[in-house]
Model the fold of this input.
Amino acid sequence: MGLLSKKDAQLILDPLADNNPITIQVLGICSALAITAELKASLVMAFSVLFVLGVGNVVISLLRNVIPSKIRIIVQLVVVATLVIIVDQVLKAFAYELSKTLSVFVGLIITNCIIMGRFEAFALGNGPWKSFLDGIGNALGYGVILVIIGFFRELLGSGTLLGYAVLGDPIAKTGLYAYGYENNGFMIIPPAALIVVGIIIWVQRSRNPQLIEEA
Amino acid sequence: MKQKLHEIKESFKGNKWAPAFNAIHTFLYTPNEVTHSGTHVKAADDLKRTMNTVIQALIPVLLFGIFNAGYQHYSAIEGFPENFSVLEHFITWRNFVVGLTTVLPLLIVSYGVGLAIEFVFAVIKGHEVEEGYLVTGILVPLIVPVDTPLWMLAIAVAFGVVIGKEVFGGTGMNILNPALTIRAFLFFAYPTWMSGDKVWVHGAVDGLTKANSTDAISGETILGFLAQNRAEDYAYSISDMFFGFIPGSVGETSALLILLGGLYLIFTKIASWRIMLSAVLGALAMGLIFNAVVDFGWIGTYSKFYSLMAFDFWKHLIVGGLAFGIVYMATDPVTGSQTNKGKWFYGFFIGFISVMIRVFNPGYPEGVFLAILLMNVFAPTIDHYVVQANVKRRKKRAEKAVIYTEESASLETQSA
Done:
């Protein structure tokens, strides 16, 4: 890879698989449960976190030598809150309907453990370019899982993808529904996301047994 | 045949498919291997015998369910017979045919899918196929409505066996009762097929075409009537409820046969009488509390809970799935409490919470499966505290104890 050194590439690729924030570090689970009933919401959430974490990591990294360590949490919160408000306002301006479905969960990005976690664990000790890559990597790792969960929950729970009826019309009984297929109501409710996350963790760990924790 | 199977098995020894062939072999014939060394404890109550006893206790219930499916079907079309007689109206050929054609596919799908998954996991993990599914497989068709679509059942069975059991390590390691996990999955995934007034009678969903009558078949359960505050609308007598000539899930209706099955399980020492008794007590206690609330006039007929609260406390035992759940599900030795004292708590809360869910949540007209699943989760906690209490008591006793040394003992004998 010409653009990135091997070490830098590792910063982006690691969180996508073997050090995934959701399935390995088990952070950010709450939002993964709350907003993944639809694929669209998962995508928007993924992009919002991508923006907040990417920019936030750079800002914190630039400020890392001037932040007094006693008040660093407050400074971090101010940075996240600012970025989240920007995201929220943009969504309200350009995608009002969507921002209504996401409701408080955009605001709750502030409390997403992944963001504070990366600020604390990485941006405070590394330069801006590395922090940027780390932020992007972790946000993508988070987003990938969100999109996978959103894909299965929307497909099985509502029979649609991004709002398009891919399995047919459940009321007019076309497509699969003509054969007696019905949507799985269980996938709509948040516990289903927990089970999908569990299955992803299961698959990931049986493919790479090194990830299995000591009991 | 046996010889051939044996040869096949030998040829696969050490291979990863060995467990699968071994399972077919031991399922059909006595194993041809004998133990080689030492003395072994010989006891008849291995897993297979336990499973077989439970299945024996379930067969009458299954047969009754088959006849009842047919009886409810024809009664819904032609109206309930006037002078009802068991031989004339219930145990009839046509009831049996209708029941068999609806219940047998459920049974086949349940066993087919469940055992297939057990086989796959046994091959992947390289262990012997476990018998754990034998009981679950017969329980599943008994706790679902007759007209449950087969593909839904298949998905639910796959979910229940994989997520409810195999992820925890297979038979004996599961936290939740697999049959109830399957029931819960069906309930939350396809609520329209698991509750309401159409699903309990065969043919009611597409009733008009089959019944050739102007009004659709209505097969509301008694709990369904009560939840809608229509207590006066059902025409079932107490003996109907007790003997089971009422609509409901396939195997849950006959309190009599479930009672007999329960006694059989108690006398063969397979199921715990403590759990059954305490669960019955728990249900009665909660029922009495609700009856008392009505008697004191704290709640009026306007309340949407009125009918269920005013329902005589002992009748809770003979309608719905409470009896079936207590006898066959709560007593599951894997997921229930292990300590004798713990069993009392565990059972009591199952009965108590079941009736509570029944009354307070008309959206869940049947609370038994939720109550048992909830207590499954709490069973290890209950056991923990029972064991800790025992440890504490013994420690106290040990502190107070006077320890006689050898000398003092010899002194005592001298003085005596």
Residues 93-125 of chain B form the longest helix (33 residues). Chain B is about 65% helix and 0% strand. Chain B touches chain A at residues 149, 151-152, 155, 163, 167, 185, 188-193 (CB under 8 Å). Confidence is low (pLDDT under 50) at residues 207-217 of chain B.
